[in-house]
Amino acid sequence: MLDLVLVLAAGVAAGVLNAVGGGGTFVALPALVAFGLSPVTANAVSRVALVPGAVASAWVYRRDITQVGATSTVTLTAISVLGGGVGAGLLLVLPASSFDAAAPWLLAFATLILAFGRRLSEAVHQALGRSAGMGPRAVLIGQFILAVYGGYFGGAVGILMMALWSIGLGLDAAVSNPMRVAQLAAVYLSATVLFLLASDALAAPSLLTAMLVGAVAGGFGGAHLARRLPARLLRGTILTTAVITTVLYFLRG
Fold it and tell me: Which residue in 66, 137, 183, 223 has a CA-CA distance of 20 to 30 Å to 21?
């Protein structure tokens, strides 16, 4: 019973983090590994468990979602679903070492972009003209690559999304946070379908259920909390989460 309570608490924390700024995987995954699941199984279970929480957060944010540049929201979501499914398929057939080895450096880059992306984007626009920036095709290609990563491993994929949108389009992290949550739900949803069909994600039903319930509560509550935070405080929370997540990745490796 104590184990289930701890996993439930980890689910709540992961749901809140994913709703507010990202990084919930680094609460959910270590908790499941600590209770005896293999890293690959824990990865699949955490993805399945976090989907309802991500959907709950997206529902709270539904009126705050803004379009990413000139890219259609429907098209962007379809690309996220497709990429998430491809990444989940790769997880089932390939070793986890490839993305795992690159993740700390990707996250370090993403954290720097989040910290200085707005200034860098303004400098790029001033140097190349106000029309400069990523077009819809480039946004979709970048989104597909990140969605594959999200389906395969998932750690801080939302942070990487906002880094892409920040440097490529100059989007503010606080403004793009609702879209990040929605795309995170899309990536997790397609990956979950594949994990339920082809992995052993259901091998630990009690742990899965406890984390799922906690993530729903955390995702719903975290999204309401994030909507009430001032934009500057939300940006600071997102950046702090990015820094902590990056440090944890390097400590893991």
Answer: 137
